[in-house]
Amino acid sequence: MFDPIKRARDSYARQNFLRFLGTELESLEPGRCTITLAIRPELTQQHGFAHAGVITTLADTAAGYAAYSTMPENASVLTVEFKVNLIKPAMGQALRAEANTIKAGRTLSVVEANVFAIDGGNEALAARMQATMMCLAGKADDPSISQRQETERKN
Questions:
Q1: How far apart are CA 45 and CA 77, in angstroms?
Q2: CATH: 3.60.15.10, 3.30.230.10, 1.10.3720.10, 3.10.129.10. Which one for 4-154?
Q3: Half-sphere exposure of 64 (CA within 13 A, CB side)
Q4: How many CB atoms lie within 10 A of CB 141?
Q5: What single-letter DSSP state applies at residue 23?
Q6: CA 152 → CA 16, 44, 47, 141, distances in Å?
Q7: What DSSP assignment string belongs to 6-73?
Q8: Sign of the CA dihedral 38, 43, 45, 50?
């Protein structure tokens, strides 16, 4: 029986870039995804804030998996567009991206993602993204691609 959540979790586990960054998939359910990342010095910009590229990566990834979790079997997901509002400099120990699918369409899905900076017990909204994700029907993820990349890297 097809399980879209397992498919999305398996896809996430093959994300080499996310593994390199050190992200964690905190939760995933149909239409929703939460991802966290510890803020390390190498992920900050010149003022010591989490880099906008890191924040955007988290938001885009959470949005993509929120949408992917609603898509049919034998499909994959790609980002078509997004807009990010950087609301407040992200400082603290960690970032958390929470994405919610607003409209899951047959071809296009609209998703909102919020990124929070966590500093001790305090949380602050650092960024908000609105994204459009495309369902690539009939083009399921190919697990052999990441396996081949890993083999090539080791050689």
A1: 30
A2: 3.10.129.10
A3: 21
A4: 18
A5: -
A6: 13, 30, 37, 19
A7: HHHHHHHHT-HHHHHHT-EEEEEETTEEEEEEE--GGGB-TTSSBPHHHHHHHHHHHHHHHHHTTSPT
A8: negative
For the chain, give percent helix, strand, coil, nearest 5: 30, 45, 25
Burial label for 44, CB within 10 Å (0-12, 13-18, 19+), is middle
φ and ψ of 59, to 5 deg: -65, -45
CA 116, distance to chain mean position in Å, is: 14
Mean pLDDT, the chain, whole residue set: 94
* Tokens 């803020």, located at residue: 39
Q: What is the pLDDT of residues 37-89, one digit of tens each?
A: 999 999 999 999 999 999 999 999 999 999 999 999 999 999 999 999 999 99
Are 135 and 101 in contact, with CB atoms under 8 Å apart? no
Residues 127, 56: Cα–Cα separation, whole Å: 8
